[in-house]
Design goal:
Layout lengths: L1 E7 L14 H12 L5 E3 L2 E8 L2 E8 L6 H11 L7 E7 L7 E4 L8 H10 L5 E6 L9 H5 L5 H24 L1 H8 L4
Parallel strand pairs: 1-4, 1-5, 5-7
Antiparallel strand pairs: 2-3, 3-4, 6-7
């Protein structure tokens, strides 16, 4: 059975619940809830497993805090013997408009410390990522305060409205591969 590691980035703790920086956690929570899955606490995070059509999805929410996400990713890739080509990291993106998303097979961290730590820990920027826009209109705010700020009602409703589509992206990545997924989903809401 082919295995895939799907990582949602975020920070642990009640103070970070539904903050813009925790979009990765929110997407995985949505996926789990809609597939009757439960997360269990394990080394370096919380995981749940989902199987479909001969493939195993391992959903990981690291508990290492955002800036040390690479430690959890490296550990679970090694523990489950998963190749980096079967890794998908889900994160917020400050430079994408709210609710827009991009799927890429490589690229820069774009100033995102969680992605930077993964890149540094794995010694490569060649890994798959799904970046979800949290707003390109943060210029009136301190960047750290903005990403760690709670979603307002409009942001909450709009972001949660795209979670079904982001879950389709996860399934497409596992079933069809990164190239097909990029062709099907980039620039679509």
């Amino acid at each position: 059975m082919k295995k895939y590691l799907i990582v949602g980035l975020g920070n642990v703790g009640d103070q970070y619940f539904e903050t813009r920086h925790n979009i990765g956690f929110m997407v995985l929570n949505y996926f789990a809830e809609n597939n009757d899955l439960s997360f269990e606490e394990v080394k370096h995070g919380s995981i749940c497993k989902y199987k479909s059509k001969g493939r195993s999805f391992i959903l990981l929410k690291p508990n290492t805090y955002m800036n040390l996400s690479g430690k959890a990713v490296k550990y679970w890739l090694s523990k489950e013997n998963i190749g980096i080509e079967n890794l998908l990291v889900i994160s917020d993106d400050l430079n994408l408009p709210l609710c827009n998303f991009r799927i890429r097979s490589n690229g820069s961290c774009g100033g995102h410390n969680g992605l930077l730590d993964i890149e540094n820990t794995l010694n490569t920027s060649v890994y798959n990522r799904l970046r979800i826009g949290i707003s390109s209109d943060y210029k009136n705010f301190n960047q750290i305060d903005f990403v760690l700020g709670k979603l307002n009602e409009v942001e909450h409703n709009e972001l949660f409205s795209i979670f079904p589509k982001t879950c389709e992206v996860i399934i497409s990545f596992v079933m069809n591969g990164i190239d097909s997924t990029m062709n099907s989903y980039n620039s679509k809401k």
